[in-house]
Structure formats: C-alpha cells, structure tokens
Amino acid sequence: MDSNNVSDTTNTGPLVTAHSLPPDQISPKSLILRVFQLKNVARRNWKLLLILIALGAVGGFIYDSLNKTRTTYTGTIMFNLGGGSTSGGFGGDLGQLAGAFGLGSGAPDASIFSGDNFLIYAKSRPVVEKTLMKTDTINGKDTLLINYYIRHSGIRDKEWEDNDTLRAFYFNRPKKPAEYNKLERSAMAAIYGRIQGEISVTQPERKSSFMELGCFMEDEQLTATFLTTHLKTIEEDYQAKQTKKTSEMLTVLESRADSIAGLLSGTENKLARYMDQNQQVVVAQAKIQENRLTRNSTFLTSIYYQAVQSAENMRLSLIRETPLFTIIEPVSLPLYMEVLKPGGLQIGLALGLVLGIIIVFLRESYRSIMRGN
After folding, report:
1. Share of the chain above pLDDT 70, in %
2. Within this chain, do residues 220 and 354 fall inside the same structural domain, yes or no?
3. Residues 236 and 212 placed together within one structural domain of the fold
C-alpha cells in the first residue's frame, strides 16, 4: 500500500510532460543560447564577411566609374480632346447625303478611337515617326527633329557607342517609312525603342476628359520641342482618321459637282448655238430640239445647285466632326531636372553582404555536420 503511494507521488513524468513547451515555441534559455551561437559564428567569420563586402563595394565602384551620371529633363502637356460630333450612323444632313448615294443607314462609326485606345495610339510607332520627321525651328535654325534627337538624346554615346556607322548617321531629308533604306530602318527602330520608355500618355482623372502627354529626355530643348511637336502630330493624324469617311464623301461630292458643271456648260453652249442658227426657223422639228436642249439645261442647273449645296453641307459636317484639341497646360521652361546616379556602390555592398551570409551559412552547416559525425 505504502509502496504504491510512494510510487504514485514520486512519478513526475506526467508533470514534466505538462510543463514542457510546444514544439513551435522557443524558451528564453534556447533563445539566449542561439544568440551566443550567432556571436561565435560572427567572430569566426567576420574576416570572410568583410572581404566579400569589400569585393562587392569595389565592383560597384568600378561600375559607377564606367557609367556616367545621367541628367534628365521632364516636361508635360495637359490637353483636352473633344468637340467632334460623332454618332453610330449618318444622321441629319449626312443621312440624306448617304441616301442620295445609295449608302443607306448603318454606316460604321467614324470614331475608331475610344477609351484607352487613344492612349495606345498616341505612343504608336507611325505617329512617333511622323513627329520625328517634322522640321522645327530650334535655336534659330530649321532642324529635322530626328537629327536633333540623335545628337542630343544620348543614344550615340550609349546604344551606338561601338557602332561607328550609326554614330555618324543622320537623315538628309524627311522620309516616309516606305522610303527608308536598311540603315535608316535600323536606326529608326533603335530610336523608337528608346523613345517608348521616355514618353507617356495618361489620363490624370478617370472621370475627366483631360489627357497628359509626358516626356523625359537628356536635353531640355529636345524635351520641350518633342512634346509640342508630338501633340501637334497627334492632333493632325487623329483628325484625319476621325473625319476620313466624311472627307471621302466630300471628295466624291466635289467631283460630282464639277462633272455636272461641265455637262451644264456644254448643254448651254449647244443651246446658244442652235438658237443663233435657227432664229427664223418655224419648223416643228427645230422647236423640239430647242425645247429638249432647254429642258436639259434646266435639269442640269437644278442638279448642279443641289450638288453644290450637298458639298457645302458636307463641309459643315466635316467641321462639326473634327475633334478639337485644347491645350490646358502647355510645356513651360525651365523643365524639372533630375540627376540619376548609377547606384553601383550601394548594389555592390548589398550583394556582397548577401553572398557573405550565404557562404557563412553553408560553411557553418558543413562544420556542424562534420562535428556530428
């Protein structure tokens, strides 16, 4: 009986199990021991860490020496796009004109750009190339913008540093893409690839119709000139595309009016000659011919007036459909200047530290394994 009591009271196994910590927790004693272990690890490997950090710093310093500090100038233009009246089909005067030509309703909408499509369109290569191929007055001289970009953007000293042919390259005149030779296509591709990262078209507020064209380049005058010229190019190209259908119909109407005017003039001349030749003639056959010419002349006159009126209505419709670009905030000098340093030294220090920690971890793990064996 006593022995059983003694055994029950001296069995501390359940008590020890009850007070032991869960496997996912660390006791204060274990934490202190680990801190001392880390201290010992650092004491054994501080020279290795220092050497690796120093090597990283040297590598970063060399990188900074080879890559110069870059200065950029940032400018923006805020504008509003609106004023063009477009609809899903031809309405009003346009509907009547379309019916006269047998087009009927259901013609496609002239507005092919909507929403975010315009943001993509404004940075597209065809529009950028049109901008670069424009001539502008820079520092008092008429200069082809793409040649000014080649000289002042930094592309010759960076992307074309090892290519003597491209370093000496320039365009002798404005050209269309179909007129480029092989070297010009290569140069334009490199220039557009660089400009893609230098310009942006954004909408500051989703509920607003305002747009913002931004650009940062290594020359202040280049940045300001490119922004102004590019917005003008966007306006011209956008208006031409938005009013393409109406412009084509206007061309047809003007051609039709000219043709009717030619027929009317010929008929009137024939009638005048016939009347001069048959003033005293009272034969019925002659009167029939005179009446026929008079009727044709009257009919052609009526049609000609209708064609002229239709062409004039189409011109008014073209004006109504033309989008209006209103500059809210123009680009203003001086532009915001930012000095961009390579940052190789900081990156080298960080890489050296990370590499040192990894090597020390592998080294200590190997020492622990060998000690266990």
Report:
1. 71
2. no
3. yes
